Amino acid sequence: MACTCFTKHPLPLLNFTRPTKNFPSPALPTLPRSSHSLLFGLKFPTLSTPSSSFPSSPPSLPHHRSPISAKVSKGDVPPNFTLKDQDGKTVSLSKFKGKPVVVYFYPADETPGCTKEACAFRDSYEKFKKAGAEVVGISGDDPSSHKAFATKYRLPFTLLSDEGNKVRKGWGVPSDLFGTLPGRQTYVLDRNGVVQLVYNNQFQPEKHVEETLKLLQSI
Known about the structure:
Layout: E1 35-36, E2 43-44, E3 82-85, E4 90-92, E5 101-105, H1 112-123, H2 125-130, E6 134-139, H3 143-153, E7 158-161, H4 166-171, E8 185-189, E9 195-200, H5 206-216
Parallel strand pairs: 5-6, 6-7
Antiparallel strand pairs: 1-2, 3-4, 3-7, 5-8, 8-9
Helix pairs in contact: 1-5
């Protein structure tokens, strides 16, 4: 029968205890009571603050947005404006409240399409008056250009100078030919200043007059 023999001298045990000698720990930087990050401008909490107080993600950085023009559509009350007419007098859109008004934006004085459009409004002006409506043309030309244009073609209605096309942009009038040509767009506002028609046709300027009269004669 086999037996197991043990030596009389036990094996030495390994000592895993921490040495009693104290080694210096590396110095840790201490944060002040309130410090700021140069990266995101975050305010770090003090060491005693729980870690849950730290933001989980950095805030979004500010970014610049390009200005956006609101598009005036049917049923809207368009923003008011004050511009100079062909005589250098200031005219506000609010002046026409209480009666229908036709506001038509056109590219420029003396161009073939714009001349046709202006003369078509001129030839039908008595019909507009009979409907109780005012007609206002707007382009980026200055008042002296409007004056010469109105005199040459005997235009009986108001032409306003939108230098810098601020009103055009504010109303969101679209451009044509890939943005190279100011758009031709007509708006009909009722007695309360609410848009009842928006009509755009660059290459058939006389149609603006026809469509406008149809609406005015129906309201």
